[in-house]
Amino acid sequence: MQGIVMIIGIVLLVPLAVNAVGGLENAMVSGPRPLAERVDPAAEQKGMEQERHAYLYGPGPQKYKDDLDESSLPEPWLPISLGLSFFMLRSLGAVMMPTSVPRMLAFKDTKALRRALYLLGPYFLLMYGSSLITMNCAHALNLGLGPDEADLAVTELAKRVAPMLAGLLIAAPFAAVMSTVDSALLVISAAVVRDLVQKSFAPNLKVSTTKTLSYTVTAAAGVVVFFLALQIKPTFLQPLVIHYVGASASALFWPGVATLFWKRTTAAGVVTSMLGGAGIYILCVFFPPFASSFPMKEFVYGFCVSGLLLYFVSRFTPAQNEERLALYFGRD
Q1: How many CB atoms lie within 10 A of CB 311?
Q2: What is the distance between the alpha carbons of residues 259 and 328, in angstroms, rounded to a whole number?
Q3: Domain boundaries of the chain, sorted by first residue
Q4: Using CA of residue 183, residue 185, residue 187, residue 189, what is the dihedral sign?
Q5: pTM across the whole model
Q6: Rounded CA gap, 129 and 180, in Å?
Q7: What digits encode the pLDDT tens for the residues 12-27?
């Protein structure tokens, strides 16, 4: 249901936004506020020279410059190393996310998996294509949002282009938020109840007790995060999303892939890989290596260290029991 609400809202925004701005050509090139000549607000605030046709290069957030040697970056844009980092993060990082892996493991057969692929391809094409078009139009309409208020773009655009339908259109981004949040809550609950309590302390947990504990943990996690949000009040959610994806992928990508496809994987290798990847990620957040010469996102270092630890620790620790392996890989 959340996916249906998301796709209806974002697709409906496309013709409304394009009509409000007078066509994509006005939004991109020939209008009063063409996107092709937008400025980098952070660079503008620092009084730095602006590049024309900035859309062709992508405005690099100047907050990275605070941690780097100004002389090492001749242009106010992100260096290629950070571009490669984000490419790795978005392509590899999403593969083993804790909110998506349980869904992959829930397919009842390969037919269901193929059907899901046929549905998801057009769905994501519509979703991301529509988002790109509407956000390109949003800049031309001048919604009056500051650099740290981009999270409000869809809601403000909906109120501007279709006030009568604003409720339906605004439901789309909230459905996306709910989809991510409820998946995360379910993962937290399952990790605590199934992986920690049931497997480690109470293997014969009753069904009624499992239900009660699951509800309690889910509610507690939601309440804690809710009050943290009220206290912290993040002005821009994207950095939090990047840290969530980067840290999760640093710790979980290689353990997830190895346990599915490599019989030589051991418990010691998995634990070391998870702790090492997460630890290196956190360390690089506070002490980024090569920051002045070749800056990269923390995920790249955590990702590489996690893979190396998994391989070498698994190689030098005793292999798993053949009977247990046969349950998952079959017998030779």
Answers
A1: 17
A2: 10
A3: 2-236, 237-332
A4: negative
A5: 0.70
A6: 20
A7: 889 999 998 888 888 7
